[in-house]
Amino acid sequence: MIRFDNVHYSTNNINIINGVSFELRKGDFTALIGANGAGKSTLARLCNGLLKPSRGAVNVGGFDTALVRTSRIAKFTGFLFQNPDRQICKNRVCDEIRFSLECVMEDRAEIEMRCERTLEEFSLDGERDPFSMSRGERQRLVLASILATEPELLLLDEPTTGLDYRECMHIMECISGINRKGATVLMVSHDMEIVQDFAREVMVLNDGELLAHGSTKDILRDGPLLASASLLPPQITELAVRLGAGYENVVTVDDMVSAVKKKREGAE
Ligand SMILES: Nc1ncnc2c1ncn2[C@@H]1O[C@H](COP(=O)(O)OP(=O)(O)O)[C@@H](O)[C@H]1O
Ligand SMILES: [Mg+2]
Predict the structure, then answer these.
(1) Best substitution site from 11, 12, 16 to test ligand 1's pocket, by max atoms within 8 Å of Cβ?
(2) pLDDT tens digits, residue range 16-70?
(3) H helix and E strand count, the chain
(4) Which site from 55, 124, 127, 217 is most exposed, i.e. has the minimal number of CB atoms within 10 Å?
(5) 260 Cα: distance to centroid of ligand 2 (angstroms)
(6) Kind and range of the H or E element at 2?
């Protein structure tokens, strides 16, 4: 779905991405982690053709982003910016969703049907003015507008920043749902708990270089790797590493509960 071949990106003579290569397959759920300024947002923008590599090649859904129009990539890609307010352009919730659908399809009946369905699924009031809603609600609206188009590829830049726990879980369940239906997800996040609970693979970016790309379990348990990218492991994996034997496969809280139960049963 996405292939980077030795990608470099620089602007104003500053190198932001330095020789990054990786491949995401259809249906992957990958998190991109790294400290502030590591180049995560830049890498996400390289994925949807908003930025073109200075050197190397980016291939998305079979298209070389340097050779194809960005609008062609937008037909099958949903992109959530770090700040939802940069994406909202209409005064009514239903118009916002409709607008997003109109960008990728023409059938009026289909657009209206999807618009209604999306309002219901996301418990949104179609008549409201987006700018009178809370940040969490606006984030939900932007995500709803994107998901209404059923993109094959979902690029999310910090989708849960500024949300409370409930809003965060609701949004992550929606993202998980579309991934289960087959969409490929690349999610920038610095919330290690979210990464641990939802992503199956993780890429670690530091100073524009890709330090690692592997399973969530392997990456989050690698303390020295995370430290070299100025990141801290989530509490659960840190504890699991310290507990040692019997806790090798612990990634989530649920895993920890099962591992503790197993140990107890073994001791009895
Ligand atoms: N248009 C730009 N001009 C100059 N520097 C930029 C520009 N965009 C990003 N940068 C710099 O590139 C680095 C990576 O930025 P970014 O991709 O936003 O990182 P992240 O999302 O990981 O915080 C930062 O040091 C940032 O200051
Ligand atoms: Mg960023």
Answers:
(1) 16
(2) 999 999 999 999 999 999 999 999 999 999 999 999 999 999 999 999 999 999 9
(3) 11, 10
(4) 127
(5) 37
(6) strand 2-11
Q: From ligand 2's centre to the CA of 190, what distance in Å? A: 9
Let me know how long the chain is: 268
The minimum-distance atom of ligand 1 relative to the CA of 35 is 22
Q: Which of 193, 174, 180, 197 is nearest to 255 (CA)?
A: 197
Give 97-140 pLDDT, tens digit per residue. Answer: 999 999 889 999 999 999 999 999 888 999 999 999 988 889 88
Distance CA 95, CA 162 (A): 25
Residue 145, token pair as written in the block: 């507008």
Q: Give CA torsion, residues 31, 188, 155, 47, to 10 deg.
A: -90
Query: How far is CA 102 from its chain centroid?
Result: 24
Q: Give the number of C-alpha atoms closer than 13 A to the C-alpha of residue 74, restricted to the C-beta side.
A: 12
Residues 238-253 pLDDT 10s = 899 899 999 988 888 8
**Per-residue pLDDT at 162 exceeds 80:** no
Identify the helix (H) or strand (E) that includes residue 40: helix 40-47
Which pTM was predicted? 0.91
Give the E-state strand segments of 129-198 in sequence order.
153-157, 184-188
